[in-house]
Design a protein that fits this description.
Elements (H helix, E strand, L loop, with lengths): L1 H6 L5 H22 L1 H12 L7 H13 L8 H30 L1 H6 L1 H32 L7 H12 L8 H29 L7 H35 L8 H17 L3 H26 L10
């Protein structure tokens, strides 16, 4: 297998990074879309903890009993669309910014200070990804928190735009940044470090493709747990701020301060059990799917700076 890989011409430029972006789009949209039922229950627990107070399994039972099993797929349209866009920019951007750091610093310095490169590259990639994600995430939360608001992505998006304007889609942009940027930084740096530790013991070049997938799964699972814990308070605030429109004249910053005071530290970790399960699972499968799709597309020209 190793000999075959070495004889293939490596891609570069747009041909390479477009494949990274497509692989990222697929891995994020598929995993987030598949876990929509978990996200629905997690969001309900965050928005109405007094009613949904029986944990994740109990929350599933409550939603099905009160609204039917179909309610668990509420928001699947904006989830899939939003994370397709976000995944392409996140993973594609991460690879691109990592390469730019290598070009600027030189390979040796980039490798020496690789933790900083991972953190900076993931943060910049996530910033641009969130610009695309925010309107669709706002629509998803509105649909989940108000099941009768609209029948789906197009209806919900159009209603919010007409009634509240473009600003409503970005009311949660601050919380999304505070949630997603630390989340993504933790996600990528922990993944890279865990995978690097494994490959120091079991060299990647000697490992079968199937075992590399297992490494991606395991590293992604650990990374997902770390990312969930780091970003949980902002995730709860994001759910709260998108639940309903703000009062007339009430700015986003004022609303965020008000929500933070109401929640407190303990309240900000409401729903952490469901989110640990969700984020750990989806991150593990994201990195596994991403790695396999990159190989299938021949996108093997990415620079690795791990020791």
């Amino acid at each position: 297998m190793a000999t075959k890989t070495e004889t293939k011409p490596q891609l570069s430029g747009v041909a390479l990074y477009s494949r990274f972006a497509l692989a990222g789009a697929i891995c994020c949209s598929v995993t987030h879309g598949a876990l929509t039922p978990v996200d629905v229950v997690k969001t309900r627990i965050q928005l109405d903890p007094a009613t949904y107070n029986r944990g994740m399994i109990g929350g599933f039972k409550q939603v099905i009993k009160n609204e039917g099993a179909g309610a668990l797929l509420t928001g699947v349209g904006p989830t899939f669309a939003g994370y397709f866009l976000q995944g392409s920019l996140k993973f594609g951007g991460y690879e691109l910014f990592k390469q730019q750091a290598i070009n600027y610093l030189g390979y040796e310095n980039a490798s020496k200070y690789r933790t900083g490169v991972y953190l900076a590259s993931s943060a910049m990639a996530e910033f641009f990804a969130d610009i695309a994600l925010c309107p669709l995430e706002a629509t998803r939360i509105r649909l989940v928190s108000q099941p009768t608001y609209a029948s789906g992505l197009i209806g919900g998006f159009g209603k919010m735009l007409k009634n509240e304007g473009v600003g409503a889609f970005y009311a949660g942009f601050g919380p999304i940044l505070f949630k997603q940027i630390p989340y993504t930084m933790a996600k990528f740096v922990v993944y890279e470090k865990v995978a690097e530790a494994v490959y120091q013991v079991f060299p990647k070049k000697d490992m079968a493709d199937s075992m590399q997938t297992v490494v991606n799964l395991g590293s992604g699972l650990v990374a997902g747990f770390a990312a969930a814990i780091v970003s949980q308070p902002a995730d709860t605030m994001l759910s709260k701020i998108n639940k309903t429109p703000g009062a007339p004249g009430e700015g986003t910053t004022t609303r965020l301060i008000k929500i933070a005071k109401e929640l407190g530290l303990k309240g900000s970790y409401t729903g952490i059990g469901a989110r640990l399960f969700m984020v750990g699972t989806l991150t593990a499968f994201q990195f596994a799917i991403y790695g396999d799709i990159k190989k299938a597309l021949g996108a093997t020209g990415g620079v690795e700076i791990g020791k």
